[in-house]
Amino acid sequence: xxxxxxxxxxxxxxxxxxxxxxxxxxxxxxxxxxxxxxxxxxxxxxxxxxxxxxxxxxxxxxxxxxxxxxxxxxxxxxxxxxxxxxxxxxxxxxxxxxxxxxxxxxxxxxxxxxxxxxxxxxxxxxxxxxxxxxxxxxxxxxxxxxxxxxxxxxxxxxxxxxxxxxxxxxxxxxxxxxxxxx
Length: 182
Hints:
7 strands; 4-stranded antiparallel β-sheet; 3-stranded antiparallel β-sheet; alpha+beta
C-alpha cells in the first residue's frame, strides 16, 4: 500500500500561512508546487487522505517559498503548524499529562494521521525517548528531516511547558530516528 496523509496537515498549513503571512504568500506557496499537489494545498479536506507526494511537495514549497531556504525559519514554522493543529481542548489535556504517556500514544496517532507502511516504535525513558519511524517515504528528504523533530518538539513542549530537544539521529530512505529529551 502506498503512503497517504490526512488533510489536517494541509488545512493547518493553510491556516498558518494565511494568518501569519497573508493570502499572497499562500498563493505563492500553492503555485510553487506541482499541479498534482495544488488541490491538497489550496482546498484541503481535513478528513480526506492525500498521497504522500502531496506532503513532500507541500514541504518543499513551504521551505522554498515561505522559509526562503532557511532551515531555522522552516523548523520554527513546522513547530507553529504543529501547535496550531492541536485543538485547544487537546492542548489543555496535554498540559496535564506526562511526556511519557504522550509519547506512548504516538503509534496510535500515526495510525490516525497516516495510512500505509509508516509505523513508529517508541522507547520512553526518564526524561527522554527514542522514536523510530519506519516505512516512511522520503525519510531522507531534507524537509522531512527538518519537519519530524520540529513537530515532535512542538507537541511534547505542549505537554511539559518548557523547551524540549528533539534531534534526528539517524535516517535513510525509509527510516528516521528521533531522540527527544525534556
